[in-house]
Amino acid sequence: MERPPLDGSERFAIVVAEWNRSITAKLLQGALSTLVGAGVSESQIDVVWVPGAWEIPVVAQRFAQSESCSAVICLGAVIRGETSHDQHINRAVSLSLQQISLANDLPMLFGLLTCETMEQAIHRSGGNVGNKGIECAEAALAMVALLKNCPPA
Question: Is 60 in contact with 14 (CB distance < 8 Å)?
């Protein structure tokens, strides 16, 4: 599917978790290279690091409420441990981001890896399963173009 060209007015925010930085930095690099490759100037991209995935929604909400962004890309990596802690974080973050997206009529891209092992995270951050940061940036570009052609809310 061919995407209409950007008009230069688009701004993108990327909220990325510091926790598991060896993984999230690769997701961020994938997202940045995809946006820049599509013609988005680096000056049109705001990157904010937060301590962990749990903190992503509050910063994503700030960007959404500022009405300065065309889309918010949320990147993180939650890896299962010995308890169910990961499940609570994953569910809360995913539901929060969905609510923020709908309440603000703004694409909110879910790039939170929810992996059983570090090996799975490595594979999804540029390994043999691709890079979720790239996928989220591509989806953000597609959604921004799509919403430009949809009736206003």
Answer: no
With CA atoms as reference, report the closest residue to 97 among 24, 152, 15: 15
Q: What is the dihedral of CA 67, 98, 117, 27, to 10 degrees?
A: -20
Catalytic site residue from 85, 88, 91, 148? 85
User: Whole-prediction pTM value?
Assistant: 0.92
What pLDDT score was predicted for residue 121?
84
Q: Is 2 marked within a binding site? A: no
Q: Tell whether residue 31 is among the known ligand binding residues.
A: no
Answer yes or no: is 116 a known binding residue. Answer: no
Residue 88 is among the residues annotated as catalytic for this protein: no
Q: What is the mean pLDDT of the chain?
A: 91
- Catalogue all structural domains in the chain, each as residue range(s) with its CATH number: 12-148 (3.40.50.960)
Residue 141, classified by CB atoms within 10 Å of its CB into exposed (0-12), middle (13-18) or buried (19+), is buried
